[in-house]
């Protein structure tokens, strides 16, 4: 991840993370790493859904 910041949204049951990746391929590779797979397994009982939104840079 080239840059990132996470913060708690106004909804007490939501977490928003904003990250900047070099490419979608880099993000996809990161999601397949052992530590991310372990994290997903560890929190699966607490996470009801996950949404990833791909944004484009502005002006």
TrEMBL record:
UniProt xrefs under SUPFAM superfamilies: Dimeric alpha+beta barrel
InterPro entries recorded: ABM_dom (IPR007138), Dimeric_a/b-barrel (IPR011008)
Name of the protein this chain belongs to: Antibiotic biosynthesis monooxygenase
Matching Pfam families: ABM
Tagged with keyword Oxidoreductase: yes
Keyword Metal-binding in annotation: no
PROSITE patterns from the UniProt entry: ABM
Positions of the ABM domain: 1-55
The entry's keywords: Monooxygenase, Oxidoreductase
Species for this entry: Escherichia coli
Taxonomic placement: Bacteria, Pseudomonadati, Pseudomonadota, Gammaproteobacteria, Enterobacterales
GO molecular function, one term: monooxygenase activity
Highest taxon in the source lineage: Bacteria
